[in-house]
Design a protein that fits this description.
Distance between the termini of chain A: 70 Å
Strand order of the largest sheet of chain A: 2-1-3-4-5-11
Largest sheet of chain A: 6 strands, parallel
Number of domains of chain A: 3
Structural class of chain A: alpha/beta
Helix content of chain A: 40-55%
Shape of chain A: elongated
Largest interface: A-B, 47 and 47 residues
Keywords (chains A, B): DNA-binding, Repressor, Transcription, Transcription regulation
CATH class of the largest domain in chain A: Alpha Beta
Radius of gyration of chain A: 26 Å
CATH topology of the largest domain in chain A: Rossmann fold
Oligomer: homodimer
Strand content of chain A: 15-25%
Protein name (chains A, B): LacI family transcriptional regulator
Chain lengths: 339, 339
DNA sequence: GTGAAAGCGCTAACAA
DNA sequence: TTGTTAGCGCTTTCAC
């Protein structure tokens, strides 16, 4: 591949002049500029960004670290991040931690070597603290998205898990449900804690009994939630509704319910956090707390770039993007006659 | 951030020795190695891969260029590519062309500057040829995935669109369908052409009439396919089944059918290419030709890396991964009584 | 087993 | 408006 020197020779100028043409970083005679541009085109020259990064000490590379690339919440977020990064002149490296802090650490080390300018970070859980400290120690700016980590001051773009859970619960209670099970995510993930918190708080608010056997913890990932549902279905008194902590958990629950011959919503109502856009097209079915996932990505990248450029206030900021409750067929009024 | 020289000073050796420790690229005394490793740890040293790339003329970076990051076919493919890349010691940059050759070109130019070692390339269409030629001119190895481009010899990992379409059509015909509509993708995408071809060939095979008004072209993306369906629903004689060229097209079709009060499969059957894993959990519904998307990514990266390392045969290779037909509820026997 | 010198492709800083 | 020099952090080459 041709270098800046090849271009310089061909245009009969110095490398410095070519550099100025490429970057618009100094005065260049119109006629000279034309010659240089001509030479670049003829040689199919593309500047080597490694070399540039080495001297400029910036790569214009950001990283988006998410925990599950198959979850539509994160892919839509990724779209938002990508669009914003492009608009601001940054490239984006995607990393997928698979909800695993060890894999997350490997990626962080890779990113440190890559010299990314900043990281948009969806932590796999509270254990991510070590990894985040590593970034901070090296002076790499980061913005937390979707989940937060205790004992860490930093920029954040979060949803409102408490509020969303509360609204979903209010909806169920309004519709006559009194025995509501909660299938929550891992305790080491902040959104799981907050959603459980919202569940509990709303029950208390209505003086409803809190039955620990109705609260079951599972993974956030798609896959078999068999044992979890087994536990639930073995209860003496069965719930009339399920509040699931995210979209994949809800899918897993419904799948298991089906296996056991339960119909949603006839036999049991189901509501959850996060929408599934695809599904909504096929059959508007699940009642959900939909989060503006695309905006998570956009705001995240904007905050990150402001932090990198130093145009942000020195204080850390938190942006909260509230969910929207969408009521569909999966939740029904328990007193209404079945159609 | 500390450099190799900082480590060298701390360990009382030269930079060269540190380099040898990092890369295992030469003999180092056990005791010296320990001192160097100690120093690296104490300084939180991570080698600058830009500097390394500059001299080694390899970045160990691959790019995965796909056309739609929200399509589960591609996200699963991405997982496969990511896992394989990691295993082989490569980093992966995701790019999303959005089915747009212009955006695709911008990304290619960016990748040229980034000095990626190779590109896993799902072309936006036949117009990608220019972009691919650019890569070839610069000597960057690439592997085409999912779609091919006419007049270009290169490594490829493809599905078998003809076969999948044929099998889906056979399934419909076996179940008594005679008037089958085809909602196909853009003509400039190879898979759309092949699927249409499979549709036509199977009709001919069974001496069934080919009615051009039953063949409608639309986009591969999720979104409203209103006008397309409008055309279909205005036909004199209506089809009893629809063959949709991909998952998103099928979703769009079903959505529109619903709007017009048509039920699937009671009023009309629908089959399509590519599965939707999420959906399958909620309600095993769509009859599909499922492609092994994860393997597309794995094989693609493997081929690419072999090409980069020069361990591949000099001849270009094509891997074909056939689809699997999964029959579900969206297609029914037209003569069977409704339940 | 270890180090010194040179250079990868580019740009900052200064000089002309 | 243009060019020269030096150096970013690393590895290759060759010498010891």
């Amino acid at each position: 591949m041709p270098t800046i020197l090849d271009v310089a020779r061909k245009a009969n100028v110095s490398a410095m002049t070519v550099s100025r043409v490429i970057n618009g970083s100094g005065p260049v005679n119109e006629e000279t500029r034309r010659r240089v541009e001509q030479a670049m085109k003829e040689l199919d020259y593309y500047p080597n960004s490694n070399a540039r990064s080495l001297v400029k000490k910036e790569t214009r590379l950001l990283s988006l670290l998410i925990t599950d690339i198959t979850n539509p919440f994160y892919t839509t977020l990724a779209r938002g991040a990508e669009d914003a990064a492009k608009r601001l002149g940054y490239r984006l490296i995607f990393c997928n931690s698979d909800e695993d802090p060890a894999k997350e650490k490997e990626y962080i080390e890779m990113l440190l070597s890559t010299q990314v300018d900043g990281v948009l970070f969806a932590p796999s859980g509270d254990d991510s603290l070590k990894n985040l400290r590593l970034l901070r120690k090296q002076g790499i700016p980061f913005v937390l998205i979707d989940r937060e980590v205790p004992n860490l001051e930093c920029d954040k773009v979060l949803g409102d898990s408490m509020l969303g859970a509360h609204k979903l619960m209010e909806h169920l209670i309004e519709n006559g449900h009194r025995r509501i099970a909660c299938i929550t995510g891992p305790k080491h993930i902040s959104t799981a804690r907050d959603r459980l918190q919202g569940y509990l708080a709303t029950l208390k608010l209505h003086d409803l009994e809190i039955d620990p056997s109705m609260i079951i913890e599972t993974e956030y990932t798609l896959g078999s939630h068999q044992e979890v549902m087994q536990k639930l279905l073995e209860l003496q008194t069965l719930p009339t509704a399920i509040f699931a902590a995210n979209n994949f958990v809800a899918l897993g629950a419904i799948k298991e319910l089906r296996k056991h011959g339960w119909k949603v919503p006839e036999d049991i109502s189901v509501v959850c956090f996060d929408d599934l856009d695809l599904l909504q097209d096929l059959d508007p079915f699940l009642t959900v707390a939909k989060q503006p996932s695309y905006d998570f990505g956009v705001f995240g990248v904007q905050m990150l770039v402001e932090r990198i450029l130093g145009t942000a206030t020195s204080n850390f900021r938190t942006i909260v993007l509230p969910p929207e409750i969408i009521i569909r067929r999966s939740s029904r009024n328990i007193n209404a006659a079945l159609e």
